Amino acid sequence: MPFRNVCVGRYEEVTHPGTFKCALAEFFSTLLFVFAGEGSVIAYSKLTSGADLTPAGLAGVAVCHGLALFVTVAISANISGGHVNPAVTFGLFIGGNISLFKGIVYWIAQLVGAVVACLLLKVVTGMTTSPPALSSDVTVWGALVIEIIITFGLVYTVYATAVDPEAKGNISITAPLAIGLIVGANILFAGAFDGGCMNPARAFGPALVSWDFTNHWIYWVGPLVGGLIAGVIYELIMMPAQVRTHEPLASSV
Predict the structure, then answer these.
(1) How confident is the model at residue 248 (pLDDT cuts 50, 70, 90)?
(2) What pTM did the predictor assign?
(3) Which of 166, 228, 2 is closest to 95 using CA atoms?
(4) How many CA atoms lie within 13 A of 167 on its CB side?
(5) Which sequence ranges are marked TM in the entry (predicted)?
(6) Residue 5: is its pLDDT beyond 80?
(7) Rounded to an integer, what distance in angstroms lies between the CA atom of residue 134 and that of residue 41?
(8) What are phi and psi of 196, to 5 degrees?
(9) Quick one: the chain helix, strand, coil %, rounded to 5?
């Protein structure tokens, strides 16, 4: 059951070569994802001279995020599990699919990757990064609920297509594609309200580089709560009898 399977792990995991390789995979995958995703937002701003996001522009941003996540999950799935998101790592930790120590290493790699991506974008484009923001008619609590729901959908998709033993035969294509599609679909809806983040690293990189942390807590609390709920529900209801190894997803693929 959830929480019973949670594993702290051993401190030696932090310095293990295998953990370093996984962290490096998460770093590069998150860097590439944020570079493409945030890059699409910057490109739209440049092409429209800073105009408000139109439906066509939102669709373009959503497609870019979905395709980028599809690729970055696919290229790191067999190394680190292709988390590319602290909320995914947290949701898998809740289900006992990764230890606490490895999860912390993943978080650091993901956050650093996002920051480096935004720094590179600022250098090569000369434009300031734009952290996710609430539209004028959305309350902070409304945005928080949106982030919980859409991140729940993302992490639930990860469990259903990549973690569940019944789905692992098709993980090389099905899981990354499904994960990319759910992110793109969620952005098409939530992008007009709060940016449709679902990923604390995706919010942290642009916020740090632009030094704009307005309502930033929403993009941590919402995704982490959504990931927790997804992990608990899937582990408790969908596959309660599974035995956990407390290893990253890739180790059991």
Answers:
(1) very low
(2) 0.90
(3) 2
(4) 18
(5) 56-77, 83-101, 108-128, 140-159, 171-193, 217-237
(6) no
(7) 15
(8) 60, 60
(9) 70, 0, 30
Tokens encoding 112: 């650093």
Q: Can you tell me the distance from the alpha carbon of 4 to that of 100, in angstroms, rounded to the nearest whole number? A: 13
For 84-103, give one letter per residue: b (16+ CB within 10 A) or e: bbbbbbbbbbbbbbbbebbb
Q: Cα torsion for 187, 177, 219, 123, to the nearest 10°? A: -90
Q: 162: closest CA among 237, 228, 63, 95?
A: 95
Maximum separation of any 2 CA atoms in the chain, in Å: 55
Domains by residue range for the chain, with CATH: 12-252 (1.20.1080.10)
Tokens 């582990």 belong to which residue? 235
Q: Pick the closest to residue 105 from 19, 221, 217 (CA basis).
A: 19
Helices 218-233, 140-158: crossing angle, 10 deg rounding: 40
d(CA 67, CA 19): 27
Token look-up 């979905």 returns 66
Q: What is the pLDDT of residues 80-110, one digit of tens each?
A: 999 999 999 999 999 888 989 999 999 999 9
With contact defined as beta carbons under 8 Å apart, do 253 and 74 qualify? no
Burial of 210 (0-12, 13-18, 19+ CB in 10 A): middle
Structure tokens given for 81: 């599990």
The token pair at 212 is 């704009």
Distance CA 206, CA 213 (A): 9
What is the rounded distance in angstroms from the CA atom of residue 5 to the CA atom of residue 235? 10
**Separation CA 61–CA 174 (nearest Å):** 22
- Structure confidence at residue 17 as a pLDDT band (50, 70, 90): confident
